Amino acid sequence: MSNSESGKGQGRLKRILVFLRPYYPLEAGILFIMLLIGALGLIDPLVLKILIDDVLIDKNAALLNVLVLGVAGLFILRASLNIVTNYLIYYISQRILFDIRFKLFRHLQGLHIDFFVKTKTGEIISRVNNDVRRIQSVLTTTLVSLTTDFVTLLAIIAIIIYLDWKLSLISLSLFPILFLVQLHMGRKIRTKSRVSRDKAAEIVSFFQEVFTSIRVVQSFVRERFEASRLIGKSRELINININVGMFSALAASVAGIFSALGPVIVIWYGGHQVINGALSLGGLVAFYAYLGRLFAPVSRLARHNVSIQSARAALDRIFEFLEIEPQITDNPNSVRLSSVRGHIIFNNVDFYYDPDEPVLNGVSFQVKPKQKVAIVGESGVGKTTIVNLLCRFYDPVSGSVLIDGNDVRNIKLSSLRNNIGIVSQDTILFNATIRENILYGKRRANEEEVREAASSAYIL
How much of the chain is in helix, strand and coil states, percent to nearest 5? Predict the structure, then answer.
């Protein structure tokens, strides 16, 4: 990874952690409870040691009763703490999911029209919906569990070193190899996951394209052709997901192999220690139990690595959109329109979408207040472009557009567009009632205005 990519990754990580900031107290509470649950779980092997060395061998019935009651109490306490933790995790994850999606949605709303022309709708929907959901669990469950497992790992290492440092060193000798293998696998999974999410977004775009053009598809009898396109796109996604799944399974299997090798070493070496009298039977059982708990968080850390790498691919796709700067914005000295008369002037305006294909070249005209003007011409000569410049969906390459003597670039966007009425050539109805669609452009219109608009549109 290059320094620029590493720096960008760290910058994005800092930005994504901003979404966690409002929930730091709850996250800290979850972390504390999970660490407490982990600490209570570490008592079990010690209970086994006491049971073998102090209860069964010494035949101490009174201590057995105390031990059983203590274990039952710990079980109830852990179950109660787990319920609280799960509730808090679900609460935070849903809130963060909304926060990120809302932030992305609001940012996209402010982007230039050109962005939506050049970017497929399905691609946008995929990132707002699927990619945001993918990083949700990483910011809550995975992050807290990762921290808890790491702390638990350190605690268990300290305990087993205390029990038998020689046996501990032999058992832990496998960890460096496991770490390097998981690091390599993680990089592979991240790369493959990014390609997978791109391909999945292509399929969402494909569905959106076909279903919004279904009349054309059916008119030209292209159903089979579109179905074959879906098969081709799906085959690519299937192959990539199989690769991701295989790398994930391989990473988990490697962790599983090392998890199995550790106890085997303990049984062999520890068994000799017990036979030679260097270690008690209870000590061996406790060590073996702790080692099992040691490799459990190691396996989970391997799974967390898979989840994190996959989420990083989704995170990259989200921030690609968040890092796009809006091209049309209010300047610091912009003003609001008041008492609009409607005197429009185009002053020597040049404009193009593509530098090699100019649309407007030195266009100048004016429309006086209350004057009706029709702009006619062949398709592509710039009729819609003139309206786009007036509404400031685009800015002129040179020249200026004025309303009542004010350059539209010096008028607040909300004020400018609130004073312009548009009857679009596109037929669009939002998923709402007819009344709500009529009110879309003027939310505070009274009932008489709604009926008048409906009558003018011949729907009443």
Answer: 70, 5, 20
pLDDT (mean) for 172-198: 74
Q: Which two tokens stand for residue 243?
A: 């690769």
From residue 310, give the alpha-carbon distance in Å to each of 241, 251, 318, 357: 11, 13, 13, 42
The C-alpha angle with vertex 314 and arms to 313 and 317, in degrees rounded to 5, equals 90
Helices and strands in the chain: count of H runs, count of E runs: 17, 4
Distance separating alpha carbons of residues 159 and 429, to the nearest angstrom: 66
Alpha helices in 336-375 (DSSP H): none
Q: pLDDT tens across 68-97, in order? A: 888 888 888 888 888 888 888 878 888 888
Order the strands of the 344-354 sheet from edge to edge.
357-367, 344-354, 398-403, 406-407
Question: What is the C-alpha to C-alpha distance for residues 390 and 450, in angstroms, rounded to an integer?
Answer: 27
Report pLDDT digits (tens) over 242-278.
887 777 777 777 766 766 676 777 777 777 777 877 7
Cα 158 from Cα 156, distance rounded (Å): 5
pTM over 0.70: no
Instruction: Burial-class residue 244 by CB neighbours within 10 Å (0-12, 13-18, 19+).
Output: buried
- Phi, psi dihedrals of residue 292, rounded to the nearest 5°: -60, -40
- Integer Cα distance of 329 and 110 in angstroms: 8
Closest CA to 360 of 373, 371, 347, 343: 347
Whether 201 and 134 have beta carbons less than 8 Å apart is answered as no
The three-point CA angle 136-139-141 to 5° equals 90
Confidence tier at 1 by pLDDT (50, 70, 90): very low
